[in-house]
Specification:
Order of helices and strands: HHHHEEHHHHHHHHHEEEHHHHHHHHHH
Helix content: 55-70%
Number of helices: 23
Shape: globular
Strand order of the largest sheet: 3-5-4
Distance between the termini: 36 Å
Structural class: mainly alpha
Radius of gyration: 24 Å
Length: 561
């Protein structure tokens, strides 16, 4: 079999296996073959997937990379890195810690109806089949967590505090009050009245017979077994092979093989640089107090906060429409898929971060959504909304992810796999692009930008500090509070997220630094020939890539120019 054909067959076999292994991910990708299924949470399910990935890697190793064309060499390298990353996660059994107050299957599954199509009777029946499977899925997840406790995968206690709130929210007495019932409140025009009645009755039964009991069982387990067995310590070093696991997490999320001490030092250096710029910006406001006083002023002055959730959403909508009008100056290629704005659901808002992006489906039938946390408005300063919107919507997550999904000339795995350092590094880079787009003209808004950048620099310090260098949770909170303008609620939620999700927070700044480094290199090498719109095409039209692979792609482009 020719090398290219063997490679394409390998990609296709892997993709189909992946879709079967994770039916929800398949739905997100626009593959609706498995819309009636949930994945398994059984230990054997993960072990089987590891075996499959090892077999795919063995097949890849038998293909001579040197004989491939340039595009296929890039596919080969990206596929190899993806397999290595995912096999590492499975070998360290990270899946045995599937839940925390900041997220997990208990907060993700209520969004199922947002991801699925509802046009034909079969679509509703698929959704009902998934709801029927939730009780079994939760039972498997509970057994997986029990196995985790038995084998040393014990969650830090602080990551579970408040998780019961989001679980209790799903324990309704009236099925019509359940978020899982949403698709049955308004039907597609193609659904007859008789079918509507039948589907509504089935939904009532499955919500009360599967969904609610599943959440009741999970709450009982969390309160009676999981939380009491949790640990006071916070470091991932406390897990089995914890130090090696954290080093793997650095590679997994940043795609860089770096020791935590080096990343910690990079973070400290960035904190010092950004702090200098923050002081300069404070001086532009005319504020006469010291840095700490200015932060307190920002946290407490009512002018910086919306009075209502609707006010915050409207202000955000105005900002993103202004941003969209500036995109053509910096981008040749933008996605066709639209996006919208939604508030973070009430059941998850108290423990959730300030905002997040939910991608649209790969078949283009579901838009992307920018979720804004409207809980505790005193923690959502307006001066941060420009930077936040540039990051989460455009030209950040929505522009990059939707565009990647639309790159139909790429293998499917490259359209949908996320190397976090690329995804989040790009979004942080997008915040800085606001300077070139005419934003941050108000010094308070510019301070918000710098505070967000400082936040990502602080992450390098506190994530490595807590997981590798002996920092306490309070030490991390104090460091963030001393260096950012964010409210204490945001800071504590974020720090707890880093504890529950080791290494992920490192991806943002490390990715942004690499993209900025590559742009500076291109500007210096090309001089007057440099065109930022061309550069952005080079970065974005290859999809998400490991940072070293991205660097090689940029170098190849520079050699041709």
């Amino acid at each position: 079999m020719p090398k290219t054909t063997a490679l394409s067959k390998l990609f296709s076999d892997h993709w189909n296996a992946w879709m079967r292994w994770d039916p929800i991910f398949a739905t997100m990708c626009g593959d609706h073959r498995f819309d009636d299924l949930l994945p398994s949470a059984d230990e054997s399910h993960y072990a089987d997937w590891l075996t499959q990935l090892e077999e795919f890697r063995s097949r890849l190793d038998k293909i001579d990379r040197t004989g491939l064309q340039a595009d296929d060499r890039l596919n080969y390298d990206t596929f190899a890195r993806m397999l290595s990353s995912e096999m590492g996660e499975l070998r360290y059994h990270a899946y045995r810690l599937p839940i925390s107050k900041t997220g997990g299957f208990h907060t993700f599954l209520p969004d199922l109806h947002v991801l699925m199509p509802f046009e034909q009777v079969k679509d509703y029946e698929n959704y009902l089949a998934r709801l029927e499977a939730i009780r079994h899925y939760f039972d498997e997840s509970i057994e997986l967590m029990r196995l985790g406790l038995e084998t040393g995968f014990i969650p830090p206690r602080v990551t579970l505090e408040g998780a019961d709130t989001s679980i209790e929210a799903q324990m309704v007495r009236d099925p019509a009050q359940s978020v899982f019932f949403e698709p049955f409140k308004k039907f597609a025009a193609s659904i007859s009245g008789v079918n509507q009645e039948r589907l509504i009755e089935s939904a009532r039964e499955v919500v009360m017979g599967s969904v609610v009991p599943a959440y009741e069982a999970l709450l009982k387990f969390i309160r009676e077994e999981y939380a009491p067995a949790s640990r006071e310590s916070i470091a991932s070093a406390e897990l089995p092979d914890g130090r090696d696991f954290y080093r793997h997490r650095i590679l997994y999320y940043t795609t860089l093989d770096l020791p935590p001490e080096e990343i910690h030092a990079t973070g400290q250096s960035e904190v010092r640089r950004i702090r200098t710029e923050m002081v300069e910006t404070i001086n532009k406001t005319g504020f006469s107090g010291d840095f700490k006083s200015f932060l307190e002023f920002l946290r407490t002055d009512t002018r910086f906060y919306a009075e209502t959730p609707e006010g915050l959403l409207k202000e955000t909508a105005y900002i993103i429409k202004r941003i969209e009008g500036e995109l053509p100056r910096l981008f040749k290629t933008v996605p066709r898929l639209p996006y919208g704005i939604r508030p973070v659901p009430d059941f998850s808002a108290p423990g959730q971060t300030t905002a997040y992006y939910m991608p649209g489906t790969g078949d283009g039938t579901k838009a992307g959504f920018y979720y804004i946390n409207t809980y505790d408005l005193k923690s959502r300063p307006l001066y941060e909304m420009e930077a936040l919107s540039l990051h989460e919507a455009v030209p950040g997550h929505h522009l990059q992810i939707a565009l990647q999904q639309e790159l139909h000339d790429l293998p499917d795995f490259r359209r949908f796999y996320w190397f976090t350092s690329f995804i989040e590094g790009w979004a942080l880079y997008a915040e800085r692009l606001g300077l070139e787009m005419g934003f941050y003209t108000d010094p308070y808004s510019d301070f918000g930008r710098l505070s967000y950048e400082m936040w990502r620099a602080c992450r390098l310090v506190v994530d490595t500090g807590m997981h590798a260098l002996g920092w306490s949770r309070q030490q991390a909170i104090d460091f963030m509070a001393a260096n950012t303008s964010s409210t204490l609620l945001n800071i504590s939620n974020e720090v707890d997220r880093y504890i529950a999700w080791p290494g992920q927070a490192l991806a943002y700044k490390m990715g942004e630094l690499k993209i900025r480094e590559l742009r500076a290199r291109a500007e210096e090498q090309l001089g007057t020939k440099f065109n930022v719109r061309d550069f952005h095409d080079v970065i974005l039209l290859g999809g998400a890539l490991p940072l070293d692979v991205l660097e090689a792609r940029v170098e190849e482009w520079l050699e041709k120019n």
